[in-house]
Specification:
- One of its GO terms (molecular function) is transferase activity.
- This is GT2 family glycosyltransferase.
- It holds the Pfam family Glyco_tranf_2_3.
- Keywords: Membrane, Transferase, Transmembrane, Transmembrane helix.
- The protein has 3 domains: 283 residues, Alpha-Beta Complex (Spore Coat Polysaccharide Biosynthesis Protein SpsA, Chain A), CATH 3.90.550.10; 381 residues, no CATH class; 122 residues, no CATH class.
- The protein contains 33 helices and 21 strands.
- Helix content is 49%, strand content 10%.
- Strands 3, 4, 5, 6, 9 and 10 form a 6-stranded mixed sheet that branches.
- It is α+β, with helices and mostly antiparallel strands.
- The C terminus is likely disordered.
């Protein structure tokens, strides 16, 4: 301060400090560094201290220079501020990070603005080296540290707001100055080193025992007060704080999460302070437009999108090299290989997305998207939620995959049909992207091509195994969950025993999270996944008990209500979503769906040959054990679908895609050993290189065949379709009468029947009996049998009316059967259409509330599952890094001061 030029009159205010600040100020006063020293109160804010001093100043004083106790101005800082202040009212200096020996000065802040959430937004990159590259310009406001304010402006605005005693007071002052028609500019030439002792917790302040909480509160209060409707804005900010709190909780920062919630609560309970600040803002406002000084609405979204893209890029290319090496700077040679490697991944992903559009060309159009294993999606989000919460007969909860579909519909802007379209289109690309998380752990750097090849083979396994062809939601989910679970398992196996106890649970929690999603698709997969969990918990003879408990009990807790209900229907453990619907697409001889047997056989042979080649390269015992596990899963996938399983009065077959996908992933996980140069056997004939090339060729041939099948025919069974019922029948079903239609297929052996209504079929309708009541189900079955056999009597129409059935639909019957049904009393004229015949039940048939057959709504199983998944996500998330304050000497014990 003694080196300042020009030298100002410095008046210090001690707001009730409890350390040695008072003696330091007394010494500075004796030495002439401070012109005057005044005493304040600990509960006074910074603005209160300035107002107390300003009121007693001589009228000749025209400028106020506000300084904190943790600043170090450059000698020319004040001169530059005064020079910039000509024609301005408030001048904001450039705040630099604390000075460090042998380090360049780094920029900390040059003015501030504020986001709609109350977050502080800076217009400079914090940490950039100060090269005097910044120019002066308008700014919304800034920190009061080093702020130069004309005395006239201070008086006109009434100083800083008492409602903002510590943080955001300078920002609010500048904001009100703009709205009053005053000028607020930055001065990059004026450098001031600042420690930010208040926000980083280095200074204990009575007004801010928890700086983060106080900063969030005052930021939200500032935004609310400057809005047209402070109360509504406060409610919006409180909801935003709840979302931020969940984010901090996922980052295992419960303290910061509590700070967000406490700040939101205090904002709502101190509305009088917000109202007082709003009146102060309204008093000084001249309707000046400050929109251009606020961050655009999409800026924070773009920032989050950039962060997400960076995270995805780190997953895809985790070992990127530095942009420029010293060798490249000192050589004339240009290495194009690195450039090609860096372009390989984005180009490949772009081509895969384009291929997905080509393969899904039949998915676009009008009508409902359906498939052999894909039921029509509900029309609205409320319908999807209803399908999730409705409980089938004899169970505590509905299938959890319905919850994933309902929540996923938010991605489709609340339209379940749009979400289904996205899921079907992106099933292969997303599975490829999930596979990269596994391959980058199994392959060393500079093996981008090998990683892409393995990812391509894994993603294209979905159409080869009939997943995309049948539209199976479970298969698409397994394409993502299985490789991510394998990646988490590898992290668990390679854990560092010196990590903290909480960090050791991250990998098991991730494994439990993805295992839960895999079990949603195929419950029986929990058994092999638990076997892998036991193997992952064992390391060097020691058992990681906490991790094993999380990996085993996490899925059990999340799926407990549903799994308990499956005790009565154990066959459901071996089937995927909507088993009664998927059973029609599963054949004992071809459990891999619509893929030709010869194509499946060739693909399987190439895959197994590549894996066996890799075992020749590295025949360690644990790799042989993995090969045995893959063989077991492969055999189960081929054998189990041959068994006819009773379920809900019908016959289903076990799902094969889950076991085949698990075996495929394990086999592909063996292949990197043959694609790693360091693992090869260097000899005269170099057989290792031959093996490596052979493995790559086999996988490339497999990928080529898979790609051709995907682009050519794999998407054919999934298509857009309109209902086969006449428009008049659909209109009655959609009306207030809400009748049902009895559908009978007499051409199948035995004859099959089902019900159609405005809410049937839909997601989950094949998870249980369409008619839960046994007596009602027996009546409906009797009506269907009578129609299929041609023995319908006079009571056919009466029975239909009693069940709320307004129309009868028959397919596969000959002319004699159609005539027999048409002669039944109580039925209207027959209407033939596209090989089917429809009759109307005479009379005003209405489905009254007592004929509603849907199960009861239960919300607690869904809540329990979501809570369990949130707990696993919190354990799995990386720990949020604590904010580091600038380096400085340790504070003296007991220090407390208010700037």
């Amino acid at each position: 301060m003694a080196r300042l030029d020009p030298r100002p009159a410095i008046i210090a205010v001690d707001n009730g400090s409890t350390d040695a600040s008072a003696s330091l100020l007394a010494k500075a006063l004796d030495e002439g560094l401070v012109s005057e020293c005044r005493q304040g109160r600990a509960q006074d804010g910074f603005g209160d201290a300035v107002r107390a001093v300003e009121s007693g100043l001589d009228e000749s004083v025209t400028w106020l220079w506000l300084l904190h106790d943790d600043v170090e101005p450059r000698p020319d800082a004040l001169a530059e501020l005064l020079r910039q202040g000509e024609g301005c009212d408030i001048v904001v200096p450039k705040l630099l990070e604390p000075r460090r020996r042998n380090h360049a000065n780094r920029i900390g802040e040059l003015g501030q603005t504020i986001a709609g959430s109350g977050a502080r937004v800076l217009d400079v990159e914090t940490g950039d080296v100060d090269q005097h590259q910044l120019a002066s310009g308008e700014v919304l406001g800034g920190s009061t540290a080093g702020l130069l304010v004309s005395r006239d402006a201070w008086r006109e605005l009434g100083g800083t707001s008492p409602e903002l005693p510590l943080f955001r007071d300078g920002l609010d002052l500048g904001w009100r100055a703009h709205e009053a028609g005053l000028r607020v500019v930055t001065c990059p030439a004026a450098g001031i080193h600042h420690r930010w002792a208040g926000r980083t917790g280095q200074r204990e302040a009575a007004l801010a025992p928890r700086p983060d909480r106080t900063d969030r509160l005052l930021g939200m209060r500032t935004v609310a007060a400057h809005s047209q409707h402070p109360t509504l804005t406060s409610l919006r900010l409180a909801l935003t704080a709840v979302v931020f709190a969940l984010g901090h909780l996922l980052g295992k920062a419960p303290g910061r999460s509590l700070d967000e919630l406490a700040a939101a609560w205090e904002l709502l309970t101190t509305r009088s302070l917000t109202a007082a600040l709003h009146r102060r803002v309204a008093y000084t406002t001249s309707r000046a437009d400050t929109t251009h000084l606020r961050p655009p609405r999409g800026r924070m979204l773009r920032l989050r999108a950039d962060q997400f893209a960076s995270w995805v890029s780190d997953r895809v290319l985790p070992e990127r090299e530095a942009d420029t090496s010293i060798d490249e700077l000192t050589t004339d040679r240009v290495d194009g290989r690195r450039a090609r490697r860096s372009l390989l991944v984005p180009v490949a992903m772009t081509l895969v997305l384009l291929a997905a559009l080509v393969a899904g060309r039949r998915l676009f159009g009008f009508g409902t998207l359906t498939g052999p294993a894909l039921a029509p999606a509900p029309a609205t989000l409320s319908g999807a939620l209803d399908a999730w919460l409705r409980t089938p007969d004899g169970q505590l909860a509905n299938a959890p995959w319905l919850g994933l579909g309902a929540l996923g519909s938010l991605v489709g802007l609340g339209r379940p049909g749009w979400f289904v379209l996205l899921a079907q289109l992106l099933a292969v690309p997303v599975a490829m992207l999930a596979g990269t998380a596994l391959w980058h752990r199994l392959l060393p750097p500079r093996t981008t091509a090998a990683r892409l090849l393995l990812s391509l083979v894994w993603g294209l396994s979905l159409p080869l195994l009939g997943v995309t062809g049948s539209g199976s939601p479970g298969g698409a989910l397994l394409g993502v969950a299985l490789p991510l679970a394998a990646a988490a398992w590898l992290d668990w196996v390679r854990r560092d025993e010196d990590d903290a106890a909480v960090e050791k649970l991250r990998a098991p929690a991730r494994y439990a999270l993805w295992s839960t999603l895999a079990a949603v698709a195929l419950p029986a997969l929990l058994l092999p996944l638990w076997g892998f969990a036991l193997a992952g918990a064992m390391r060097r003879g020691s058992l990681h008990v906490p991790g094993l408990a999380v990996a085993v009990f996490g899925p059990l807790l999340a799926l407990a209500p549903w799994l308990v209900g499956l005790v009565r229907t154990p066959s459901r453990l071996l089937t995927g979503p909507d088993p009664l619907l998927a059973a029609r697409a599963v054949h004992a001889s071809t459990p891999w769906g619509n893929t030709p047997w010869w194509l499946f056989s060739v693909g399987a042979a190439l895959l197994w040959l590549a894996a066996c080649w890799a075992l020749v390269v590295d025949p360690r015992t644990r790799r042989l054990a993995l090969a045995g596990a893959a063989l077991t899963a492969w055999v189960l996938g081929l054998v189990l679908p041959r068994l006819a399983l009773p379920l809900h009065g019908g016959t289903v077959r076990a799902d094969a895609s889950g076991w085949l996908l698990l075996a495929t992933l394990v086999l592909l996980a063996l292949c990197p050993a043959a694609l790693t140069p360091s693992a090869l056997n260097p000899s005269a004939l170099n057989p290792g290189r031959l093996l490596r090339r052979a493995t790559g060729i086999l996988l490339a041939l497999l990928a080529a065949g898979q790609l051709g099948w995907w682009l050519g025919a794999a998407g054919a069974p999934v298509h857009r379709t309109r209902t086969e019922l006449p428009a008049s029948v659909v209109a009655v079903e959609q009306s207030n009468r809400a009748t049902r239609t009895l559908l009978v297929d007499a051409g199948s052996i035995p004859a099959r029947w089902s019900l159609h209504a405005r809410d049937l079929p839909r997601w989950g309708s094949a998870e249980g009996d369409q008619v839960p009541d046994p007596a009602l189900r027996q009546q409906a079955q009797a009506l269907a049998a009578a129609m299929a056999s041609g023995t319908a009597g006079e009571d056919l129409a009466d029975g239909a009316r009693a069940l709320g059935i307004g129309h009868l639909w028959l397919r596969g019957g000959d002319d004699g059967l159609v005539s027999a049904v048409s002669d039944t009393p109580g039925l209207g004229p027959a209407e033939a259409r596209e090989g089917a015949t429809t009759w109307t039940v005479t009379g005003l048939v209405t489905r009254t509330p007592d004929r509603e057959w849907a199960g009861p709504r239960r919300g607690w199983p869904a809540g329990l599952g979501i809570l369990a998944l949130l707990v696993l996500a919190v354990l799995a998330a990386p720990t949020t890094a604590a904010a580091e304050g600038p380096r400085r000497a340790a504070a003296q014990p007991g220090r407390r001061s208010n700037r």
